[in-house]
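Here is one such tokenized protein:
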Amino acid sequence: MILVLAISLLLAVSGAGKGKPRPEKKHKKMEFCVQDPTTFHVRNDTVREQALDKIKALGATCIRHMLHLQRLDPCGKNYLEHLRRYHSLVDAANARNLKVEFVITGSATAWGAATGNDGKPCGKPKGINPKPSELKAFIAKYVPIFTAKHVKRYSIWNEPNAHAWLCSGVAKQYANGTVTCSGSTLKSQAKAYRALYIAAWNEFQRLKKVKKIPNSTEVILGEIVGPAEGLQFLKLITRGKNTLLAHGISVHPTQYCFAPNTRKFVFPINTCKVKQEGGIGWANAYVKLSEALCKQKRLRTPKKAAAPVLFTEFAYMRTGEHRLTEELRAKWYPKAMTFAKRKGIAQMSIYQLTPKDRNDAWDSSLLNKDGSPGPSYVALQVWARQHQFLNKTKHVHVNKTA
């Protein structure tokens, strides 16, 4: 009898009894980051430093920014100013103990070439259809510069499954500056991106071998657009003879119009009714896929573990066709953070701190136009304090009327 009771007690304590649900997998500590390309690079240094102070007060521990191939093309007329701004951003972030992460990428602007003094594109295009050799040369030149300033994590290419950032077909530019991509499929996009990523990974390993960058420098696969068949794209990328290595997988988990902790298309307001699959509600699917790819030896970390999943450029809109009310944004942002952390996501990066100076279709800012914290900012700050990202000091006043 005593033996039976002992066994029963052991099963109860260990959770090994039948019918007891297994606990959710939790990442040891989810990173909290902010990305705001306009504030970080376009606005003046004073505005940028004020924004970094707000990010620090928010409770975030890192910032993310794009390291553009075009901006750092020496033939461009603004090359030195762009280089200065990158250095200044890193220095200002380091001074506030904010880690910096870069996304190495190009874009369709001016056919992906820098603009010369005559106002025309100069140099070789490095935009939506770059050569792997061009990417390797860029990494060899600039990564050692910024790793020396403690930038030790680099994602390879922004939204490679979106034609605005990578074109595996035929690109065409029109008079109004827009660029289209024809003859491209998800499969061909994945093949083109795999070649770029392998070239980048190999160049990082070469730089480590010759001791130009620290061995602790991390290379992240992506940043994949989740709703643009992100899960399928990740499967296609990892098809090949050799195992892909990465320190993580970056995904843009856009899910504008329905709650972050669900896959059900239930829309609380009429202004936003976009059905997006593959967003934050699919967090568990991305984690499980990474684990499966590791077991299949298709994608894993250098230590032969499943690559952690990073959710970057996460946002809820305050204007435009996907807009939500401020009350709903303030409710859903903390819910999204908690949901991601509970599902084992390694990083959540919030997109856009400050509103742009002009009216823009994209506005997911946390601050009001006068620079005061909006409800979403305060809600995230409270969340950060509760989850030990921020010291328990009095939070800033929220201005709901600005």
In short: The chain has one domain: 24-386. The two ends are 70 Å apart (CA to CA). Residues 1-24, 392-402 have pLDDT under 50 and may be disordered. Residues 186-209 form the longest helix (24 residues).
